[in-house]
Amino acid sequence: MTDTSTSTSAFDAEKEAGFGDYFALLKPRVMSLVVFTALVGLIVAPVPVHPVVALAAILFIALGGGASGALNMWWDADIDRLMQRTRKRPIPTGKVEEGEAFAIGIALSVLAVVMLFLAANAVAAGLLAFTIFFYVVIYTMWLKRATPQNIVIGGAAGAFPPMIGWAVATGGISVEAVLMFALTFAWTPPHFWALALFVKNDYAKAEVPMLTVTHGRAITRRHILGYTLALAVVALALGLTSIGGPIYMAVALVLNVMFIKGAFAIARRDDAACEADNHLAERRFFKLSLAYLFLHFGALLVEATLAPLGLGGW
Predict the structure, then answer these.
(1) Domain housing 243
(2) What is the pTM of this model?
């Protein structure tokens, strides 16, 4: 005879949330990009920042990014349960309650903004507050389910961190900060549309109007090419500013040639070819896009590190 109470206890234990589940709620992969680009924005700024202030600022920016992730998962819990790539998130699996995710997201949002204001300045705190609002309200609650341009406009939320880092150091915004923002902003559509090409059915099942669902893969491929060409212009323009230099330009030239080549390869393909090789070119392009942004910002970091030695910058 089966011990029902023991079985129930074991089942409850399996669904009980641990630290890893709450950490997953903050979207750590996205947070790593937020932290890195914000850190680069802070370091390449022309005004030095005390290490303690810098560390505190990056911590609070990371918390703000995590808060956005938690609120995104709270709102999107219904569609996350339907999509293959998101159904193992903490809320769909029952590890974290929707109310818990909401409370954590709100609490971390307030904490992050207030503490960044105290540690740095009002401009940086204001930008962080606007970033959280933009990602949660403008993108998650409105655009994501309303328009195939969701990821284009919504991509602005992920583009703000380097600008926030710059504001922590300078208390303002400059051409360099705007171009760092533009680099991430222009990178977002080809990055996510490449993913959407081979997970189209996921978005269709959840009724998310991704471009691949509303207009088809052929148009999406052409959009990827167009945005990739625009992205290359932004990337090279950033290299001509005070935070650029020969190292950054060399990295940018190589990466953008590879990215454009990949986008052209995707644009020439049709659905039959994609199905035949399981979207191999699209998957390669997506993997390259993951490295693309980190390597560009990494090159900016190298330029800033070598500049005091007279080896970086123009």
Answers:
(1) 174-314
(2) 0.90
